[in-house]
Amino acid sequence: MNTTVLQENPTYLSAGYGWKSWLFTTDHKRIALLYLISITLFFFVGGFFAVMIRLELLTPQSDLVSPETYNKFFTMHGVMMVWFFLIPSIPTVLGNFLVPMMIGARDLAFPRLNLMSWYLFMLGSAFALIAIVAGGVDTGWTFYTPFSSVYSSTHVVLTLVGVFITGFSSILTGLNFIVSVHTLRAPGLTWGRLPLFVWTIYATALILVLATPVLGITLALVAAERIWHVGIFNPALGGDPLLFQHLFWFYSHPAVYIMILPGMGVVSEVIPCFSRKHPFGYKFIAYSSLALAIFGFAVWGHHMFVAGQSVYAGMVFSLISFTIAIPSAIKVFNWTATMYRGRIYFRTPMLYVLGFIGLFMMGGLTGLFLASLAVDVHVHDTYFVVAHFHYIMVGGMVMAYLGGIHFWWPKITGRMYPEAWGKFAALTIFVGFNLTFFPQYLVGYLGMPRRYASYPPEFQVFNVLSTAGASILAVGYVLPLLYLLWSLKYGRRAEPNPWEASGLEWQTSSPPPKDNFEVMPVVTERPYNYDPEVPVHDPTR
Amino acid sequence: MWNFSFAPVEASTYAHRVDLIFLTLTVLSTLLVIGVVAAILYFAVKYRSGREVDRTPAKISHLKLEVTWIVIPFFLGLGLYVWAAWTYFGEATPPPQSMDIYVTAKQWMWKVQHPEGMREIDELHVPVGQPVRLLMTSEDVIHSFYVPAFRMKHDVLPGRYTSLWFQATKPGRYHLFCAEYCGTSHSMMLGSVVVMEPAQYQAWLKENSTPNAVLPDQTPTEMAGKGPEDPMAVRGEALFQSRGCNGCHGANAHVVAPALRGVFGNTVQLASGETITADEQYVMESILDPQAKVVAGYEPIMPTFQGLLSTEELAQLVTYVKYLGSQEAPAQEQQ
Chain A window 210-239: which residues touch B at a Cβ cutoff of 8 Å? Predict the structure, then answer.
């Protein structure tokens, strides 16, 4: 590609300059970057609280900070990471950037609505940040009643408002994806030819649209009870505290799939590319995403086995929770089989994705431990649960997010990231992650409850290991921040398709022009037309 | 710090059964992880880009293979589900000879009332080999009663009774944790369960009962010599009179309100047409929220006692109503 072409067709980055061209943009790619910057900030805010938690837990006594402060730290860690990083992460950054390009469209169906989603997200996060600065909140990210609605004396309402507003951003984003996938696919791009990433974003969008309203209503009810003493959850006012848990988990369990499905989408793109193979069992991978989105709505009661719901309800929820492991297992087996007779390249994204499979398996299988009624009675609300969901959300989703960021970095920025640093950071994160969270399975089984500022001394050795791992993990997360920023100026210029990947997003320049394609694409063949017998030119040359 | 172990002590009849399921899950999961990781590593090495190897395109889908790796894990999972659910279900109902102990949780302490009337704070003494049922309620937020050595946990809610039972197998002192986040001092809401040999337990009861067990001054006369002997029920009877319950629910006043003899443990016909078993939860609810489930044939006129009774007093009243339940209902009240 020569410079004259570039001048004739400016990229989306050079299509306009100045803050107005960014803050008033309706370009899905620019909005993706706005999200990228915002959620990176929130990730490090949440990360700061994680560091403080791990430092406090280095010793059994509550000595670094007071228990009040510790309770606020783990609450704000959860609130930031769940609502302001994990839920928006892959959908709003990679989804926004890639879905229109992958389906061969110029933009999402509702570009202005897309910009509005970002503004709502920022408004919501502003409330949450103000709550933090004003003194924080100490209810846990789960806001259990009647503690949150009556007893807590911290900034509960401010935080609720933040999450409530952010919910509208989620709903509008989901709506935009659903409509775009239905109406804007390029000629010839049938559902059976859709990239698997688009399938997972589509499934995620269904959850966003159907589950988030329930969360909004629930949080509004908590606020109503807190401000106007309307008796909904507080038994002293005739309410039912368990009702909150039912409503909350009716959203928050499907939300777990919001926090993993898009990661599975990234894995389903990266493995075929670096194995040079059509994904094994495309249909099974695609439909299992929908299965997760649908069955995800029927398992919320497994958070409440010891909460006081009926024994029979527990038995039903346990059974459904066992069956929901099947779609996840299908994906893992198919990804593995995809590598058979492939031609495998160990680029940074592939390392992240292979790490994802291992960690996600461990997170998923310990999910079966928790779905087993008799075992859950013991390990519920202990560090076993903490380890389990961090294996899914951090070991799974964050690994996939970083893998995806590296994979599409050349497309997003037009620059290559430094490969050696990329691999080094991926390995650092993998090692640091396991050292941080594996000991938590052990200490959880021994009975250490979660959300404890102090703990009996016999649990200390596991906590020391965990804190040691967390320091490695912190280095692993700062590294990509540094070298990716560095690459913006000094990275090698990327070709349109440095990985020789299939997929429409690679059929245009890097970075793409404002309207994505010079000539609107027409799809004539199945996706992932890789040939393992043909070597790829060395992209690191 | 170095004084740690990898397996928590097993001190209840339930603990070993949970550990067995846990161990089985661990072994099966480990095998599965090893299998998949080994396959990934094998493919990664064998088919790495630089290597000359047969790469004739394989099938892109294989229905039999897909069905195999869906069906086998599904039935394995089903087996594990049945095992774990069966164990849990079997444990849901306490044996009839269980001893009832009332537990009240509040920010941030555990209060315990023994049937003998003994009270303790942050400690629970129980005899080894005796099934114990805890009837638990909270005065404020949700707490959770958790004894890792028993592999037992249940949330403790305000406004209702939840229960949990165990049979300790090994004398010793075990951690009692609050496992549901309950505010500032959540991690300091600790206690101990002290499991004792039955003889020691009796000695402990005798030693501690005098200063704590303050019995009411007046002996209830209503049932003249036929009253309850259990100290908690005795206290409950005193409350039944001092709070005016007997004005309506007394043996001679069954017109306004249902008499309570012979009621506990039996089915009650409600005004809504439903029926309900009169258990601790129902009695408690009827005291705190009398309009919720009115007995058929009576007017909803009872005032609420919400906020007027401590949870201990509530437990004593429930125990007394339970005692009344064991008494034969007078003939004219049977309908």
Answer: 234-236, 238
